[in-house]
Specification:
The chain is built from eleven helices and no strands. The chain is mostly helical. It has three domains: 4-108, no CATH class; 111-197; 237-325. Keywords: Coiled coil, Membrane, Signal, Transmembrane, Transmembrane helix.
């Protein structure tokens, strides 16, 4: 087909060249200006008329062949597009048929209306959920804005507090120093009041030319050393005192019956503890006669309890003797 068309065009052009001028066939200016045909030269005056017309016909035939090729390509593309459209139409028709069959099956179902009502109810529920979600989203946006404002206000407060904290810390340090000064002065005042109320210190203060504080400081270490030596001596000679007391009790026939280790230990303890308790009570009554504090009350209570120790020891000794006599 592609080979017969150029020969037919050539024959037609030959016959037209015999009976018409060179301007018989017209071509569009756009086709004449095609780059493929711009390099052809126009016939000169020296050429024969027939050769010029033949050359012109060849040019026109080439143009027509080019147009034919372009038209064939366009037809091929359109045919391909038509084929694709036909395939899509077939697919859509099959889809429509499938949907029609599904719709007919649904219509034939006994619970078709119930399914439709159920789907409509689900759609309404989903719409309600969407509305609630939209409302919640709007509320959350409002809360976010409020939270942003609150965060900004808190940030401003934090910045203000960061500026105030160094000043407050400076005032706290001043107050701490003032508290230490007040505590020191309060302790001095309490010491002075105790010295004024205590009869012993009043007596020391009335002594001419002597300072009781220096005297107490001078003799306090000696008193502590004396107590330590006394405790060491008591601890050292405790067993010797028990042996001496047991020996004296065994001399007499009446007390020899009661000369056991437990009773001797209790009696020696009473002999050692009872004078110590009396001495501590005397010191407490002298130095803290008019004081009224919790510490003094506790010390008095402790001394009272310790004063009952000899009586308890004596009671235990009596019970032991009664048990031994049996």
């Amino acid at each position: 087909m592609a080979m017969t068309l150029p020969t037919a065009y050539l024959a037609i052009a030959f016959f037209l060249s015999l009976f018409s001028t060179s301007n018989a066939v017209t071509v569009d200016s756009t086709e004449i200006n095609h780059p493929q045909f711009q390099n052809h030269q126009i016939c000169s005056n020296s050429d024969t008329n027939l050769e010029c017309e033949i050359q012109d016909m060849k040019l026109k035939i080439a143009r027509l062949e080019h147009l034919t090729e372009m038209t064939g390509q366009e037809l091929d593309s359109k045919s391909l597009l038509i084929g694709n459209c036909e395939m899509k139409i077939e697919e859509l028709s099959r889809t429509i048929q499938h949907l029609d069959s599904d719709l007919s099956n649904l219509k034939d179902a006994p619970d078709y209306e119930e399914m439709i009502n159920l789907l409509e109810e689900q759609v309404r529920e989903l719409e309600a959920v969407v509305r609630r979600n939209d409302l919640n989203i709007s509320q959350l946006k409002v809360r976010v804005k409020d939270d942003k404002r609150s965060v900004e206000s808190l940030a401003s407060k934090v910045e203000l507090m960061a500026k105030i904290i160094p000043e407050l810390w400076f005032h706290v340090q001043k107050l701490e120093q003032a508290r230490e000064v007040i505590e020191r002065r309060t302790g001095e005042l309490r010491w002075h009041l105790r010295n004024e109320r205590c009869l012993f210190f009043k007596f020391i203060n009335k002594l001419p030319g002597r300072r009781y504080h220096d005297m107490l400081v001078a003799y306090s270490s000696e008193a502590i050393n004396l107590l330590r030596r006394s405790y060491t001596a008591i601890k050292k000679y405790h067993h010797q005192l028990q042996g001496f007391l047991r020996q004296k009790m065994e001399i007499n026939d009446f007390t020899a019956v009661f000369a056991s280790e437990e009773l001797v230990f209790y009696l020696v303890s009473v002999v050692v503890v009872f004078p110590t308790i009396l001495f501590l009570r005397w010191l407490l009554s002298v130095f803290f006669s008019l004081a009224s504090s919790v510490a003094v009350f506790l010390l008095t209570l402790a001394m009272s309890v310790l004063s009952l120790v000899p009586f308890l020891v004596s009671a235990l000794a009596v019970f032991y003797l009664l048990f031994a006599l049996r």
